[in-house]
Amino acid sequence: MHRGPLLLLTLVVAALTGSGLVWAIIWVGLWLTVLAVIGLALALTGMMSTTMVRWIEFRPQQNATQLVIARFLRSSTVATADLQRVVVVERLRLGQRKSITVVLHTRGGTVDCEPALLAPLSQVETEALLDWLTSQLGPAQAAVEHRTEVDRNFLCPDQWWTPSDLAALWHVPVSAVDELAVRHGIRSYQYTPRGAATYSAHRTMTVYDPSRAHEVAEELREEPTMGPEADSTKERRAGTA
């Protein structure tokens, strides 16, 4: 636990006594530490080279017959004829994408294509990836599906979103956020920020659970346009009737 002070004490003892045995123990300990670090780095590199994916591509580009899975040190292929379906799994936390995995369901089992943190596959937009897979595979070969997994293991309210955050995402006035949140089942919480609690007990604010924020944004885009213009249109139609 406290190797720093122990090492310093050992160095002081070695310097004061001039003991060759103590110096030998120090050098052996240092070399063992270096070897342990090198071994850990090699183990992590080996794991990344065998499991983490950099990108996937279809070959040949026209009438593809193989899906190439490019990893760091080697590549593997899956015949497109063996693909039954492809699922793009998107993991979200606090309304933001944390990871994305392409799961290939073949006749022989499943292949998880999980990209490394900065790999090209991890940087692709979800919609673009879905469109590309669909265009390459086509409905006759394999179905392309999208699944979202939301991480709800967070309790800290200062990580939740303010009305301004949701208004910007949903493209609505801030005053409309609370009503929309209630309608779509978005959880809300009133709390006092830590800094404000020191100066005023009344500086509370309402924040919203962002786990479904993007999902609700999609629902709002699909809804008919609401507002004064839409209401006036409805009134004119009612008067005409």
Strand order of the largest sheet: 6-5-4-7
| Portion in helices | 40-55%
Which geometry do the CA atoms define? flat
- Average pLDDT confidence is 78
N-to-C order of helices and strands:
HHEEEEEEHEHHEHEHH
Strand content: 25-35%
CATH superfamily of the largest domain: Pleckstrin-homology domain (PH domain)/Phosphotyrosine-binding domain (PTB)
Radius of gyration: 28 Å
Which spans have pLDDT < 50 for at least 5 consecutive residues?
A: 226-241
Q: What is the total tally of β strands?
A: 9
Largest sheet, in brief, is:
4 strands, mixed
Taken together, the total number of domains comes to 3
Characterise the protein shown here:
- The chain is an alpha+beta fold.
- It has three domains: 10-50; 53-151, Roll (PH-domain like); 157-230.
- 44% of the residues lie in helices and 26% in strands.
- It contains eight helices and nine strands.
- The strands form three sheets. The protein has a four-stranded mixed beta sheet with strand order 6-5-4-7. A three-stranded antiparallel beta sheet has the order 1-2-3.
- Helix 1 (3-17) runs antiparallel to helix 2.
- The N and C termini lie far apart (82 Å).
- Mean pLDDT is 78; it is low at 226-241.
